[in-house]
Inverse folding.
């Protein structure tokens, strides 16, 4: 699958605007379907930010699932692959987390579940970003197998104290 290029320059402004909502301390208005991700730049070593839609969550376990809509070209994706220790903010709650990519099979199932729960959203987002998805069960499974889907987990690792 060829991933669309992330927006750059003026085209990136609408994608970056939600960051300012969080920076202004208004993350609560974004609800529980979005999260603010703070990660470390793999080249610069500086903190970077993005806002992502939560495609599935299990707050009781501390797991939040997100998709790299622009595939492996997204800077945030490349950064967390290099350094998976991150910070997330959901509403007004901030926490440390670790990012881990799902297997293609698990990612396919998750995207199918998302499509069933939010059929209008997946059609709108896929058109907006530039994906041609076959809007069928098999099409969503295949899309999920190809696009990076990550679990951002706030649970402590077993080897940590």
């Amino acid at each position: 699958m060829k991933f669309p290029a992330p927006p750059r320059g003026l085209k990136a402004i609408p994608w970056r605007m939600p960051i300012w909502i969080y920076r202004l301390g208004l993350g609560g208005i974004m609800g529980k379907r979005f999260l603010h991700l703070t990660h470390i730049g793999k080249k610069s070593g500086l903190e970077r930010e993005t806002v992502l839609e939560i495609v599935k969550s299990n707050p009781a376990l501390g797991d939040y699932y997100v998709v790299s809509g622009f595939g492996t070209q997204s800077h945030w994706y490349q950064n967390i692959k290099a350094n998976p220790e991150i910070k997330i903010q959901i509403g007004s709650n901030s926490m440390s987390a670790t990012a881990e990519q799902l297997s293609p099979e698990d990612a396919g199932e998750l995207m199918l579940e998302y499509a069933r729960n939010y059929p209008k959203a997946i059609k709108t987002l896929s058109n907006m970003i530039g994906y041609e998805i076959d809007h069928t069960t098999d099409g969503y499974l295949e899309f999920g197998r190809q696009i990076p889907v990550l679990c951002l987990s706030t649970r402590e690792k077993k080897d940590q104290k």
Notes: The first helix runs from residue 13 to 23. DSSP finds five helices and seven strands in the chain. Residues 40 and 83 are 7 Å apart (CA to CA).
